[in-house]
Amino acid sequence: MTALSAPAPAPAPAATARPHLTRWVLRLHRPALYVWTALVLLSTVLLLLLHGPFADAAAEGWRRFDSCGFNTVCRYDQSAILRYKDWYNYATLAVAAVPFLTAAWAGGALFGKELESGTAQLSWAQSSTPVRWLSVRLATAAVLVTAGTGLLAWLHHLAWAAGRGRIDSAKDWYDMGTFLTGGPTLGALSLAGLAAGALAGLLWRRTLPALAFGTLLTGVIGGTAQLLLPHLWPTLGRSGHGYPTSPAGSWTVSQGGNTALYHVTYHPYSHYWPLQLTATALLLTVTAVLTLACFVVLRRLTGRAAAR
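The chain above was modelled as a monomer; its predicted structure follows.
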């Protein structure tokens, strides 16, 4: 792999160097900042509607429907029920896309394009060492991503909780879309996407390949986390004659046997936060490994200049 030249940066006052570089990153990627802000604001409005009037109207529609019994004529607001269901799915898809959008932007614009166009080398020559160039970009993006995903995850959880026990068609807590977008796992996966995109940009140093590889790597990380999720916390179980089932509202992980001895393992709703926190810890560990890999690759690309 050919090393990139990293000219010695011009001396700059210590008191002004750091804020100048952060402002430069924000200014250079201002369009992405505007898009991110718009996405967060629009999603916030939709989630607040789902938490409030949409959920209340759907709950009232289900209450009327359930009270109909066997009456041939039943009047209830079906449109309110469908509106909550449809917009909840749209909101979940939009929030779930954040880690992949983060990876695509980090790989394509934040790192791949800057290395391909020479903007990175210009920054190294004028104001920053390669290590600090990488550190500031990762730290600035991580702060924005963490703040935005924290708000979205909190609001998404509120929107889901508003329908729990009130709306018959509400998603279960262990639905993967609901689980991954309603807690700290969203922010952790988004940070993993940021690190994956950064690594892709440093490896490929071209916009489109880095964008594609970073997004694909994030998908692999998210898919692996989903496969491991049921096993990140000890399950409860039941066994005996007949066919015992898991309690209502529980996530059935495995079941099998025969009429002589049948067993079922499950996660009750009380395991929601333990699973959230262990999944978050796993994803943050992956993020740390990917971030370390970014600095290793940068050192190999720039040689000794990256260590200054």
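The first helix runs from residue 14 to 28.
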